[in-house]
């Protein structure tokens, strides 16, 4: 069990990409460079997204929550990517539909149980359009970090086994 790593270095603003694969490569490479995930993480997360889409139609701003198996992770991390332009992701639970996503919450969890708890907490955040619009429009990584820490109960996640 480890604490969640979440600071300005894993918040990427103005990510330029032409496809979901580009987005996932940029975001996961950032985590590889910081040794938060293994070299196997980028291809694993792209493959997982192909098999199980994670795009979510939410109020105001569509989001995606890509994640993959725990064996590719060195340290529990959440990376937030705000895209310069929308990129189509498959809709979760519907392999025929796509949705233009502008905020990506890339999850690197080192325990399957904590991944589920974090997903549940993120779903609550996604129901709040004001929070999503704040993340989308804010150019200050520190205030985005502060907002996410306020909305997510990191302490509860750290206490899990």
TrEMBL record:
Name of the featured protein: PTS sugar transporter subunit IIA
Keywords annotated in UniProt: Sugar transport, Transport
InterPro entries linked to this entry: PTrfase/Anion_transptr (IPR016152), PTS_EIIA_type-2_dom (IPR002178), PTS_SugarTrans_NitroReg (IPR051541)
Species: Halobacillus mangrovi
Source organism superkingdom: Bacteria
Domain PTS EIIA type-2: residue ranges: 4-151
